[in-house]
Amino acid sequence: MHPLVALTFSTRVAKRAQYERFAIEPVESGFRVRNESHANPAEHEYLVEMDGAVPTACTCPADERFDGACKHRVAIAIRRPDRGSAQSPSKDTTRIRGDGGPSVNSDTGHGIHSDESDSDDCKECLPDVPCWECYRQERRGFVDQ
Prior knowledge:
Pfam families: SWIM. This protein has four helices and seven strands, in the order αββββααβββα. By secondary structure, the protein is of the alpha+beta class.
């Protein structure tokens, strides 16, 4: 099951999670997310806790203040850096790109995407939320709710 299915969030949060640039780094308890879209990214760095592949909490003010998941949790779910990197960062061969693009395999340098030919068959896309690569390539857009 895709981790986005377990989260509740607005269309606005989903769009921001897609287009803002995030640097995502595995840490022991989950992931450190820095928003590179801000003028001072160091002031916009938060920790996202995980329960398996699902981002469950974030240290950002929005996650506590508003109902639903914040853009940092949604960004983690969209990019799916759950390939064991939080549990064993030293063995991870997946690097999350800060520009929001597809993940890159460190060994091969190739992008990781389930199917670049047809977004209808893409395993990363959800009915209302496309994966980043399909959105970036304009194969799919958001469905307004």
